Amino acid sequence: MLARFLRRFPLVLAITALLGLSGCGYNDFQRLDEQTKSAWAEVLNQFQRRADLIPNLVSTVKGEANFEQETLTQVIEARARATQIQVTPEMLDDPQAMERFQQAQGQLGGALSRLLAVAENYPNLKANQAFQDLRVQLEGTENRITVARNKYIEMVQQYNVLARSFPTNLTAMLFGYKVKPGFTVADEAAISRPPTVDFGTQGAR
Fold first, then answer.
1. What is the pLDDT of residue 205?
2. Are the beta carbons of 177 and 33 closer than 8 angstroms?
3. 39: alpha, beta or left, given left = phi > 0 and alpha = psi -120 to 50?
4. Other beta carbons less than 10 A from residue 200's beta carbon
5. Residues 6+ apart with CB under 8 A from 84
6. How many CB atoms sit inside 10 A of residue 59's CB?
7. Residues 149 and 183 sit within 8 Å (Cβ to Cβ)
8. Which of 124, 133, 155, 201 has the CB geometry, 3.0–4.6 Å to 36, for a possible disulfide?
């Protein structure tokens, strides 16, 4: 009897460990994974809102005679690159895809900053109510992007701490919960500062 039990002991131990792991952080992984996806969806929503404002901005600027075409072209091309990136749920687990997305959005933000800075040299644009309204909308969008990114970073950090900590890291390995890529250190440093674009009468900083 004892010999039979000893032979079966490794199997019993494995089953016990498996049952223990299934309750060791599993629900937390489920909750944080869903919260991360929700936070990412809000990031995408705000980036899309910014992209949707750009065509009207471009049309308004085109109405200004002799506006610097290179700056306008940069905004148009940057928007095209940013919107061409296919956003999929798998992107959350793909560091390279996440990096490409961040770079494209960063380039678009930089191009917008330059356009608004150049616009300060055109009194007619500064006096154009439609242009000023768009600046205000963009300012609000930039602020919402910052809030949404910070929320996403927070959710990813919580998820990754769970995935790396013992014993929940064993649950992560068992159920395939991988560490998620976040925003780069450079991006996080930028996020910690106020928006780089000043949409007020002083132009871009």
1. 32
2. yes
3. alpha
4. 9
5. none
6. 11
7. yes
8. 155
Q: With cut-offs at 50, 70 and 90, classify the pLDDT of residue 47.
A: very high
Question: How far is 119 from 131, CA to CA, in rounded Å?
Answer: 10
The distance between the two most distant Cα atoms of the chain, rounded to a whole number of Å, is 96
By the 10 Å C-beta count (0-12 exposed, 13-18 middle, 19+ buried), 26 is classed as middle
What's the CA gap between 169 and 160, in Å, rounded?
Answer: 9
| Residue 42 confidence (pLDDT) above 90 | yes
Q: How far apart are CA 45 and CA 62, in angstroms?
A: 27
Burial group, residue 12, by CB count within 10 angstroms (0-12, 13-18, 19+):
exposed
Q: What does the pLDDT look like over 168-205, one tens digit per residue? A: 999 899 888 999 987 754 444 443 333 333 333 333 33
pLDDT of residue 82: 94
Q: Mean pLDDT over residues 127-155, rounded?
A: 94
pLDDT confidence of residue 45: 95
Count of C-beta atoms within a 10 Å radius of residue 64: 16
